[in-house]
Specification:
The complex is a heterodimer of chains A (about 120) and B (about 220). Chain A has one domain: hypothetical protein PF0899 fold, CATH 3.30.2320. The longest helix of chain A has 19 residues. In chain A, helix 1 crosses helix 2. In chain A, strand 3 and strand 4 form a beta hairpin. Chain A is elongated, with a radius of gyration of 18 Å. The N and C termini of chain A lie far apart (about 40 Å). Chain A is built from 2 helices and 6 strands, in the order αβαβββββ. Chain A has a 3-stranded mixed beta sheet, covered by helices on one side. A 3-stranded antiparallel beta sheet of chain A has the order 4-3-5, with no helix packed on it. Chain A is an alpha+beta fold and about 120 residues long. With about 220 residues, chain B is an alpha/beta fold. Chain B has a single domain, classed as 3-Layer(aba) Sandwich (Rossmann fold). In chain B, about 35% of the residues lie in helices and about 20% in strands. Chain B has a 7-stranded parallel beta sheet with strand order 4-3-5-2-6-7-8, with helices on both faces. The chains are: A alpha+beta (about 120), B alpha/beta (about 220). At the A-B interface, helix 1 and strand 6 of A face strand 1, helix 1 and helix 6 of B. Strand 6 of chain A pairs antiparallel with strand 1 of chain B.
Chain lengths: ~120, ~220
Amino acid sequence: MGLKRVHEMAIARNIVNIAVAAAEKEGAKRITKVNVVAGELRGIIPAQLIFSFGLMSENTIASGAYLDLEIMAVMGKCKKCGETFVVRDYRYACSRCQSEDIQTLSGTELRVKDIEVE
Amino acid sequence: MKINVMTDILEANDRIAAVNSDVFNKNRNLVLNLMSSPGAGKTTLLEKTGEALKGKLRPGVIAGDIETSRDAERLQKYKLPVVQLTTGSACHLDANMIASALPHIDLKEIDILIIENVGNLVCPAEFKLGEDYKIMMLSVTEGDEKPLKYPLMFRESSLLLINKIDLLKYTNFNLKEAKTNARRVNPDLDIIDISCTTGEGISDWMAWLNQHYQKKFGAKTRA
């Protein structure tokens, strides 16, 4: 497997495309910051994503922008007792009643939240 | 100035995957995205599946291979319709690659289309291809802690095939532990033990395929 082509690279390319499109729509000249939200389950390696973002943003208005990555914990909601809890160590069971009938609330998101532009 | 964006990063991929899915549904294809580490036995499973389905459901394969067409050559011996995608150094297939393969395969002649993803436990889980189900293959020559190391892939899969169980006695792979770990990540996961060498479990795999084909399309009506 080519070390340069990890999933962070494909994700970084999409981040740049999304950020540039949003900035151009508002007539911005330069992107200074991109805020990204990634669920813990996405298995994103922050350093790898930031490195990839640097490469993919070269020669675009996002070049030199700061990439802020917010990692979201895996949250579950029990369908039996309604408890909301953080899923730790991939234990998909209610922390109060131990039921395994739970709904996952977060942990797989992957989106560009907002950008800062000049 | 701050601009609110709130755009899903894989939206472009997911949109193409939805189009692929429409094409598959129109052609009455049950589509499976088969994922594993390199060497878990995906291509051998496809060979066995082609044999076992003979005269029943008609299989087809889209195979993703990094540099060579070796997998496709192996499968052509079994007269399976195969499209080979050479992915270069890419570590996963994406929806666009699948879309580009579709003109090269006669979907009307296929009941079960298996997409053999690139051998990798991280990247393929991120990219929807337009499949009905993701299937994960783990072999007993790997570790039984794999589900906890690569949770997204196990979480997103509907079926786990534990392959090479004929080799179980030569390894320190704990089958029970592997299943406990996998179900911890995904309590709804179906699990089948198989050996593509001895044929053990292949009939259970066939039953799973039949059941899920019927769930999607009802009993098979075309020959």
